[in-house]
Amino acid sequence: MTSSSFSIIFVGALLLGTFTRLWLARRQLQHVMRHRERVPEAFSGQIELAAHQKAADYTCAKTRLSLRAIMFDAALLLAFTLGGGIQLVNDWSSTVFDTPLLQGMAVIVTVLLISSLLETPFGLYSTFVIEAGFGFNKMTPGLYLLDALKGLLLGAVLGLPLLFGVLWLMGQMGDWWWLYVWAVWVGFSLLLLFIYPAFIAPLFNKFKPMQDEASKERIAALLERCGFTVSGLFVMDGSKRSTHGNAYFTGFGKTKRIVFFDTLLQRLAPAEMDAVLAHELGHFKHRHVMKRIAITFAASLAFLWLLAQLMQSDWFYQGLGVQSKSTALALLLFFMTLPVFTFLLQPLSSYYSRKHEFEADNYAATQTDAHDLAAALVKLYQDNAKTLTPDPLYATFYESHPPAAERIAHLMGRSK
Question: In angstroms, rounded to a whole number, what is the distance separating the alpha carbons of residues 57 and 322?
Answer without folding.
Answer: 43
